[in-house]
Amino acid sequence: MDELTAIAAGRKFDPIKSLLGATRAKSTKKPKKPKEPTEAERDEQESLVADLGGKTLSALGWIGGSLDKALGGRAIRTGLGLATGHKHAHARDLLSIIPFSDTIGITNPGHDLGGRDVLESAGMLAPNKPGLDWGDVGGEEVHLFLSFAWPAVVLLGAVLFVPDLWRSWKYQKANKAQH
Q1: Would you list the DSSP string of 90-117?
Q2: Is 168 exposed, middle or buried (0-12, 13-18, 19+ CB in 10 A)?
Q3: How many Å apart are CA 108 and CA 119, to the nearest integer?
Q4: Using 50, 70 and 90 to split pLDDT, how confident is the model at 9?
Q5: Which of 76, 96, 111, 154 has its CA 20 to 30 A from that of 102?
């Protein structure tokens, strides 16, 4: 019926407004402003956000540490530390690639060397001073490379050079067979 009434009055009929009741009289009441949260409610909200952020970062740290161990970055840094005489490098930590080695007590995560530690013990950097400097940046780059990038470099090297080595070996074998 609304359609016929609208058309008879010379207005366009809008079925959506009709369904939503928009043809009724609008309320003259102003909408209430949302209540401002109390200080305790704000503190609770901030605490929840901080707790969620802390758990997220903690999980990411655990994943990164697990990958560092599994890919052998920690063992490589320990080996470099032993080779350069770093005072915190322990030979047992070369076994850090063994799954659960920290949990069962074979290795100690507190003995993990960073990239800066390796560079300092190699004599490439002066001892660290408070504050951020280029040695910290370079140390972090070395740490990341030894943790995650070296498997990609080895794989790339294998993809690029193993076929050439195979061809040269086959060529040498063929030449020996002819002589």
Answers
A1: -GGGGGGGSTTTTTTTSS-GGGPPPHHH
A2: exposed
A3: 21
A4: low
A5: 154
CA distance 75 to 81: 10
Q: Say what percent of the chain tops pLDDT 70.
A: 83
The more confidently predicted of residues 34 and 97 is: 97
Question: Of the candidates 151, 140, 135, 134, which has an alpha carbon nearest to the alpha carbon of residue 76?
Answer: 151
Measured torsion, CA atoms of residues 55, 58, 62, 67, in degrees rounded to the nearest 10: 110
What local confidence, expressed as pLDDT, does residue 156 receive?
80
Close Cβ partners of 119 (under 8 Å, ≥ 6 residues apart): 125, 135, 138, 139, 142
DSSP string, 35-65: PPPPHHHHHHHHHHHHHHHHHHHHHHHHHHH
For the entire predicted model, the pTM comes to 0.54
- Looking at residue 142, what is its pLDDT? 87
Distances (CA, A) of 95 to 25, 99, 111, 113, 122: 78, 9, 12, 14, 22
Longest dimension (CA), the chain: 108
Q: Which two tokens mark 84?
A: 């350069």
Distance CA 125, CA 40 (A): 49
pLDDT digits (tens, 9 = 90+) for 47-68: 777 777 777 777 887 787 778 8
